[in-house]
Amino acid sequence: MKLIPGGICAAKGFSAAGLKAGIKPTSPADKNDLGLIVSSVPCAAAGVFTTNRVKAAPVWLDKEQLADGTAQVIIANSSIANACAPDGEETCRKEMALVSDALDVKASDVLVSSTGVIGVRLNVEAIEAALPELVSKLNDSAEGSDAVARAIMTTDTVKKEISYAFEVGGKTAHIGGISKGSGMIHPQMGTMLCYLTTDACASAEMLDKALREVVGKTFNRISVDGDMSTNDTCIILANGLAENPCIANEGEDFEALKAAMYEVCLYLCRLMAQDGEGATHLMTCKVSGAANEADAEVLGKSVINSSLTKAAIFGADANWGRVLCAMGYSGVDFDPDKVSISFVSEAGNVLVCQNGRGVDFSEETAKSVLSEEEVIIDIVLGEGDAEATCWGCDLTYDYVKINGDYRT
Amino acid sequence: MKLIPGGICAAKGFSAAGLKAGIKPTSPADKNDLGLIVSSVPCAAAGVFTTNRVKAAPVWLDKEQLADGTAQVIIANSSIANACAPDGEETCRKEMALVSDALDVKASDVLVSSTGVIGVRLNVEAIEAALPELVSKLNDSAEGSDAVARAIMTTDTVKKEISYAFEVGGKTAHIGGISKGSGMIHPQMGTMLCYLTTDACASAEMLDKALREVVGKTFNRISVDGDMSTNDTCIILANGLAENPCIANEGEDFEALKAAMYEVCLYLCRLMAQDGEGATHLMTCKVSGAANEADAEVLGKSVINSSLTKAAIFGADANWGRVLCAMGYSGVDFDPDKVSISFVSEAGNVLVCQNGRGVDFSEETAKSVLSEEEVIIDIVLGEGDAEATCWGCDLTYDYVKINGDYRT
Description:
Two copies of one chain form a homodimer. By secondary structure, chain A is of the alpha+beta class. The first copy, chain A, is built from eleven helices and 15 strands. In chain A, strands 1, 2, 3, 4, 5, 6, 7, 8 and 9 form a nine-stranded mixed β-sheet that branches. A six-stranded mixed β-sheet of chain A has the order 13-12-11-14-10-15.
């Protein structure tokens, strides 16, 4: 597998564009708010979406659109979520029809995606007005990927984009992804959106299977603030232009595709956690020695979701009692007397708890370990051999600032 | 029922004292850190405790002590939680023996309670040294209650204490309570401790039943930050000196006692939420029209635990989408299209969502409603007739400040 430039345009046959359509009149003048991703041919496609009981219109409509396993275009906007909004379905269908006409693709192959404020009508008229220019800007180079990656950003501070070349079935295929926001199971309200493109050939069924497995071990293991959005979406389009023998079953080729998807999603999910609202630290929680992987995951998530632990990491305070406490209320059965906890970073490794009891450690070393940008909370249980890693970020003044006055 | 002064000393036969024992050498010079509550005669007693898998030594030892339904003394300290600490059981048993000797009560009737930092050995030598002075200060007036209420405070900014007189079985009885911290199911790490005293006569079994019901509708419905402590404790001592016919069954007298307990706990739990770390608003979430009370409670808790909703309330931002979103990921089955949401306070009432869709409202009115100290999020579902109220607080810069550097 080889890191390459190009983002979602790295795979053959994909082009993209982004611009400022003025979805919300008050949005910054230089900020793209509308993006388009187009494959030159119809794609096998799969998606995973929020499990929130309250779903934005684009989410349940995309689920319908993906029922036949094909799609060709994604149109995505920021600023307005189109959730709990007047005319939610109507505005989505209007978008689909507009894009279908403009690109001469089937309306049933157009996916729509939105992120932003809830409860406000999507200004589809602004999208209609901007569409001709957006289509004219479609570009199959890194520039196109960049423009749409920027269009979906909201409170993100860095663009999230990556691409790889990989071998599958004797051919070189490509896969790229862009994303925004900070989570899947527990994303910030700013919503997680992720679009993956590949020129590998695979059936919609195999894409769906690979996507669910990969999302389960990546995006579903990050959290910024425990709030699950109404709009979370992760979609993959596979247009088959790499000409590998089409993947229709599990096996070596399926594993190769899944491994490439995993690398893309791992990179994006870590970047999303690190870029969580107001974050100053990437907080990685590795749980090993668990009875099974599900237990390890629940424990890790409980730790990265603990407001007290997150605030302690912000303060570079080796307050391991909060880590053990968060494990204790996770619902997982384990013996606290067999737990060890270390803090690890590029600056070193400090053991703070052994057999469930505090051990003497140098506060100075701990401070220096916890002051690095990525801090690993390394938890070892005495229950078995399973492990899982989860990612989050610290809780800071800026998180409160951003979310105390986001809407107005 | 009549509000009276006296706190936990309002009931006949109870005395209390508090002082600074220097449990932690670095604690402020003028801050009590050790308290004692004593009944002149043995009491029927009941307690409810944290369900965290990681339990402090005082929690599991008090559970043992309460197995026989009797107790006479509570000794409580702040600064050190005696959780995951070296010699946890040994230091608790030493405390029990010391108090037993000093007061000539059975060691099995002494309850111990701690709050503070995890993983540090409880300095029982400081308690031993302070005990003679503490005993000499025992006082059956409001002064005694005040001293112990202050001894258990940690990051609390206000003392939490109340007492009532009530009629039961043709006699006037009294009930009082003190508490610290901010939660039970989801308390801050600072831990919730609550001690109730009454001179009503009731069996330990009836006390336990009443306490569980009342805690379920009060302390279990507040949350500050979703973190459940290792030390949470709520204990009631009933010494029978009011001479009412002893309550051994459900019925009118049981209901009278439970109603008095409810008033005390309701007052204390609201005050705890309001005094949540860094809080500037008491956030009350009332859910009605639910299919059943359990659903209403889960929905209300999901809202008061949402970091995004809490930050919006801090910013006086009528961001109702975050409320509906938090309901959506609560796990409760409901129809979002039948939900109405209003914000209510002393400044007025503003309907922001009807039938799951945003409605036009005055941002100016909303700002003024949300700027009051208590803000009620009034949610009406279209599922049934059940309701529940939960209490929380906003998420502020000060929460991050307090918790980013609590331990050191």
